[in-house]
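Tokens in:
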């Protein structure tokens, strides 16, 4: 699996083991409706302290059933693919190593570009800047452009719960909106989903370590750092049009088996060699 594919599975974010000691946690189901696609896709998210697991039957990557397991204390993200019983492991060292490899690849590409006719060189450079050729962009900001959330002045009702609508922008470009409910309205505390904020920070570190080699990568958990409350619905925009809506529902506080955050013993670890 490539790092680009792994990080995509991680933005939207699973392995059955024998029962183990359980601790109190949070169990949430999500439902996504995508424009132009029939039916809904969903995911199950479970948290316990600094551990997170997201199970997806049909992730956007199209790679089949998969799971994301994040350990905030160890700063390690593992992506499990259930079709071939394999997983990849991503940490800062992995990203740094791949970033160095990609930087060397770009240097070599630049040397080749210098030998091309002007018209062909201009086309190749445009493809690289647009992300069609996934090489690090030296002109990319060293820090990811932050997501901004501002009250739109609107309110809504999602599943019978009142929420406040925030407009989302990044670098002045509209990214959609989120409808946020008060913590007491959904019956949980900010600490119950603190691990999601830590995953957002982890994703940003990975993107920065790769020197912009994942153009336009969106990090949905980042919005939790921008709003005070629980997001009941998020809407994603492209070219001013809503392309998908995700609803967080069936939120339950329950015991989560400790081994839910482990990799099955019979799964094979694969390397992440490039974005």
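Residues out:
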């Amino acid at each position: 699996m490539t790092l680009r594919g792994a990080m995509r599975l991680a933005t939207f974010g699973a392995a059955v083991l024998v029962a183990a000691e359980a601790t109190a946690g949070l169990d949430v189901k999500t439902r996504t409706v995508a424009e132009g696609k029939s039916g809904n896709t969903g995911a199950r998210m479970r948290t316990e302290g600094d551990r997170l697991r997201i199970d997806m039957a049909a992730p956007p990557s199209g790679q089949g059933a998969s799971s994301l397991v994040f350990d905030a204390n160890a700063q390690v993200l593992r992506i499990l693919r259930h079709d071939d019983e394999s997983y990849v492991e991503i940490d800062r060292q992995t990203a740094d190593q791949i970033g160095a490899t990609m930087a060397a690849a770009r240097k070599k590409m630049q040397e080749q570009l210098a030998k091309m006719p002007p018209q062909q060189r201009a086309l190749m450079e445009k493809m690289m800047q647009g992300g069609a050729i996934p090489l690090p962009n030296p002109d990319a900001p060293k820090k990811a452009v932050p997501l901004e959330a501002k009250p739109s002045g609107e309110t809504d009702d999602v599943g019978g719960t009142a929420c406040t609508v925030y407009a989302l922008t990044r670098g002045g470009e509209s990214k959609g909106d989120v409808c946020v409910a008060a913590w007491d309205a959904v019956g949980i505390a900010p600490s119950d989903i603190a691990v999601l904020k830590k995953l957002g920070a982890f994703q940003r570190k990975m993107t920065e370590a790769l020197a912009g080699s994942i153009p336009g990568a969106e990090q949905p958990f980042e919005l939790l750092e921008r709003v005070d409350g629980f997001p009941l619905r998020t809407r994603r925009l492209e070219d001013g049009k809503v392309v998908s809506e995700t609803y967080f529902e069936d939120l339950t506080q329950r015991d989560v088996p400790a081994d839910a955050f482990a990799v099955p013993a019979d799964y094979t670890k694969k390397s992440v060699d490039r974005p």
